[in-house]
C-alpha cells in the first residue's frame, strides 16, 4: 500500500482529492514515533551533513537535522518549486538557518560537487524514480567515500488495515497495485519497492544492513493514526479510484468498513489495530 500513501502517490486521483502534500504530511505524522526511532538507530554522526532526496513536506529532513545536532546540516530536495515551498512552509523556520534547508533538485542529476555529504537519506521515493540506476550513481557520487546511503521503503510486506478481513484487504491491495501500475512503469510501485536491495547491488553499492520495523497501533487510536488511515488509506488509496476495479459486492463491503459514516466503520471498533512495516536498507560505496 501506500506510501502517502503511496508514499509518494501523486495527486492524480479524483478531482476533489486533497493536495498530495497534505496526504504525505498525514503519513509522516502517522509514522513519526517509529521514524524517530529508525533515525536514532542509524546513529548519524553529530555535526554531519546529509542530503534528503525527495524530502516531501520536510518532516523527515527536520527529524534528521535534529538527530545530527546544532552543528549538523541537512539539505532536502524536491523536483518542483511547489513541493519545496510546501516543505519550507511546514518546517522551514523550526531550526536555525543553515541546519535544514530545502531546494529544487533532481535525483538523477544532483547539483552538488562530488563527496559533499556524509550520508544520503531517500525515504519512500526511490520506487518513483524510473531511472533508478542513474539516481543511485548520483547518490554514490555526492556521498563521501565512507558515507552511507539509506533507503527507506514502507510496506515491502503488506500491512494490515482491515484486521479480520484478509481476503477483502488482499483484493483492495491488488486493485490498488493495478491502479498504480501506470505510474510505476514496467513494474508496479509494490514490485519496485521489493526490488530495492537488488537495485542497490546492481548499481555497484554494497548493502551493509537491511532491517524491517513493524509499526503497530491499536484502539484507542492516536489522532495521527486515525487521521492517516481514514483520510489517506481509506478515502484516498482505497477510494473512488478503485471502484471500477472491484466487484459490486467488494465495493459495498469496503464502504461499510471504511466509510466514516458507516455503523460498521472499523476505526470505531474497540478491538481495532493496524500493522505497518517499514524497511530500511543501508548501503555504502565499495
Question: What layout of secondary structure does this protein have?
Answer:
Elements: H1 20-42, E1 49-53, H2 59-68, E2 73-78, H3 81-91, E3 100-104, E4 117-123, H4 132-142, E5 143-154, H5 166-184, H6 189-194, H7 196-202, E6 206-218, H8 223-237, H9 248-258, E7 273-284
Helix pairs in contact: 1-2, 1-8
Brief overview:
The chain has 286 residues and is an alpha/beta fold. It has helices at 20-42, 59-68, 81-91, 132-142, 166-184, 189-194, 196-202, 223-237, 248-258; strands spanning 49-53, 73-78, 100-104, 117-123, 143-154, 206-218, 273-284.
Report on this model:
- With 286 residues, the chain is of the alpha/beta class.
- It has a domain at 20-158 and 187-217 and 275-284: Vaccinia Virus protein VP39 (Rossmann fold, 3-Layer(aba) Sandwich).
- It is 40% helix and 21% strand.
- The chain contains nine helices and seven strands; from the N terminus they run H-E-H-E-H-E-E-H-E-H-H-H-E-H-H-E.
- It has a seven-stranded mixed sheet with strand order 3-2-1-4-5-7-6.
- Helix 1 (20-42) packs parallel to helix 2 and helix 1 packs across helix 8 (223-237).
- The chain is globular.
- The model is unreliable at 1-15 (pLDDT under 50).
Amino acid at each position: 500500500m501506500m506510501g502517502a500513501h503511496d508514499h509518494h502517490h501523486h495527486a492524480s486521483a479524483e478531482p476533489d482529492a486533497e493536495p498530495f502534500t497534505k496526504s504525505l504530511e498525514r503519513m509522516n505524522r502517522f509514522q513519526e514515533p517509529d521514524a524517530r526511532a529508525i533515525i536514532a538507530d542509524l546513529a548519524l554522526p553529530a555535526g554531519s551533513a546529509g542530503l534528503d532526496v525527495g524530502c516531501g513536506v520536510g518532516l523527515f529532513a527536520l527529524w534528521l537535522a535534529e538527530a545530527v545536532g546544532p552543528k549538523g546540516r541537512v539539505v532536502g530536495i524536491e523536483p518542483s518549486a511547489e513541493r519545496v515551498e510546501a516543505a519550507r512552509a511546514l518546517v522551514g523556520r523550526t531550526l536555525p538557518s543553515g541546519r535544514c534547508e530545502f531546494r529544487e533538485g533532481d535525483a538523477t542529476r544532483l547539483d552538488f560537487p562530488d563527496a559533499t555529504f556524509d550520508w544520503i537519506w531517500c525515504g519512500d521515493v526511490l520506487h518513483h524514480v524510473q531511472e533508478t540506476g542513474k539516481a543511485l550513481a548520483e547518490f554514490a557520487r555526492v556521498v563521501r567515500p565512507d558515507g552511507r546511503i539509506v533507503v527507506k521503503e514502507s510496506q515491502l510486506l503488506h500491512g494490515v488495515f482491515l484486521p479480520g478481513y484478509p481476503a477483502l484487504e488482499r483484493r483492495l491491495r491488488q486493485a490498488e497495485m493495478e491502479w498504480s501500475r501506470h505510474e510505476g512503469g514496467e513494474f508496479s510501485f509494490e514490485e519496485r519497492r521489493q526490488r530495492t536491495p537488488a537495485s542497490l547491488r546492481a548499481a555497484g553499492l554494497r548493502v551493509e544492513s537491511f532491517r524491517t520495523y513493524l509499526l503497530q497501533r491499536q484502539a484507542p487510536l492516536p489522532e495521527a493514526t486515525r487521521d492517516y488511515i481514514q483520510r489517506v488509506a481509506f478515502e484516498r488509496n482505497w477510494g473512488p479510484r478503485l471502484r471500477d476495479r472491484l466487484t459490486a459486492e467488494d465495493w459495498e463491503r469496503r464502504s461499510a468498513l471504511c466509510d466514516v459514516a458507516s455503523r460498521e466503520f472499523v476505526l470505531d471498533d474497540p478491538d481495532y489495530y493496524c500493522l505497518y512495516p517499514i524497511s530500511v536498507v543501508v548501503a555504502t560505496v565499495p
